[in-house]
Design a protein that fits this description.
Elements (H helix, E strand, L loop, with lengths): L2 H33 L3 H9 L5 H18 L1 H10 L1 H20 L6 H31 L13 H4 L2 H25 L2 H35 L5 H23 L3 H23 L2 E3 L9 E2 H4 L3 H28 L6 H11 L1
Antiparallel strand pairs: 1-2
Helix pairs in contact: 1-2, 1-3, 1-6, 1-8, 1-11, 3-4, 3-13, 5-6, 6-8, 6-11, 8-9, 8-11, 9-10, 9-11, 10-11
């Protein structure tokens, strides 16, 4: 396989990893107003991702760096045309990170509630805007002969982009609630089961709409991997339904696993519908960025391939070790004991 095509799928896998891992981070943050009935329960929810949220975010850095090195033309057009939404995502991530670190610095209720609100905002904004961005990439945006984006922010706020944004927000929210149920006990866990049940219907409706709409776009574009789009879409639907059933049965591990599988195959559905383009032009198909005309040289891609072969297994091993170390539940008794020790 040509290295440019290989790296198209490598970048896709990196974004899949990011959306799965930071996706449940976003979901946990968005669930805070629904599951945090008091300060102890709010701490319980936040502490489920306390040791791992920053590690999960490194995936987007790696994905962005690989995109820059492997597809510089794609990177340039994407980051210049999508500058404002990507800036909003960055600011939201900063806001969320600061809130995690500063929330516990004072005991005042107003102080903590203020940072709690920033955690919710800093989680919801990226969860929605990432979907809007990916949806627009798949659908196509106005690009001229110089490979420059000629639209505006309003161009990106089209029906398909907004629908995909709502879908990612709901799927990440559900994924995060599954994680809270997996990692907590008592009332928070019971509330998480109920919240996941209530979220499941809108998540199914929006996810189904995204799969059908994306398949229609792929058919209209005569996508060469159309069969894979249908397969991944069907698997995403199946894993989503399986996660809902597992949640109803209180099988938290399976619910979270199937929820992760839903995001994996949903992102793959979008990614495969894009192939062999990287940014289709809605102005003129001849102006589109493809894998071939947007990629780096073979020499650059060869060096990147060797570096990925060496370092990616180390990153995966370290992340697996981190999750193993922090595998235990965050219990209410533990939070109360820690609070009493401080006071």
């Amino acid at each position: 396989m040509d290295l440019a095509y290989l790296w198209f799928f490598v970048v896709g896998v990196l974004f899949v990893g990011y959306f799965v891992l930071d996706g449940f981070d976003f979901g946990v943050g968005m669930s805070l107003p629904f599951l945090g009935k008091d300060d102890v329960s709010r701490r319980q929810v936040i502490n489920t991702i306390g040791p791992i949220w920053d590690l999960n975010e490194t995936w987007v850095i790696v994905a962005g760096a690989c995109l820059f090195a492997a597809f510089p033309e794609w990177y340039a057009t994407l980051f210049s045309g999508f500058y404002l939404p990507l800036l909003l995502i960055l600011l939201a991530l900063i806001l969320r990170g600061v809130s995690f670190e500063y929330r516990h610095q004072r005991e005042g209720l107003a102080w903590k509630r203020g940072f709690d609100r920033m955690i919710v905002i800093g989680s919801a904004v990226p969860a929605f805007l990432w979907g809007v961005a990916v949806g627009n990439i798949v659908q196509g945006v106005p690009i001229d002969a110089d490979k420059e984006f000629t639209g505006s922010l309003l161009t990106l706020l089209n029906p398909y982009g907004l629908w995909v944004g709502a879908t990612t927000l709901l799927l990440f929210f559900l994924h995060g609630v599954y994680f809270v149920a997996l990692k907590t006990d008592g009332q928070v866990q019971a509330d998480a089961h109920l919240l996941a049940k209530r979220t499941s219907i809108p998540a199914v409706l929006f996810a189904a709409g995204t799969v059908v709409w994306t398949a229609a776009i792929a058919i209209g574009r005569d996508a060469p991997l159309l069969w894979a789009v249908f397969v991944c879409g069907a698997v995403a639907a199946g894993t989503l339904l399986a996660s809902i059933v597992a949640n109803l049965r209180r099988s938290d591990g399976w619910a979270f696993t199937f929820g992760a599988g839903t995001i994996v195959f949903a992102v793959l559905t979008l990614w495969l519908a894009l192939f062999p383009y990287v940014m289709p032009s809605s102005t003129d198909p001849a102006f589109s960025l493809t894998i071939e005309n947007a990629s780096s040289t073979d020499y650059t891609l060869t060096i990147m391939s060797w570096a990925a072969l060496i370092f990616l297994p180390l990153v995966l091993a370290y992340q697996a070790w981190t999750y193993w170390i922090f595998r235990k539940r965050v219990t209410r008794a533990h939070i109360e004991k820690a609070s009493s020790a401080v006071h």
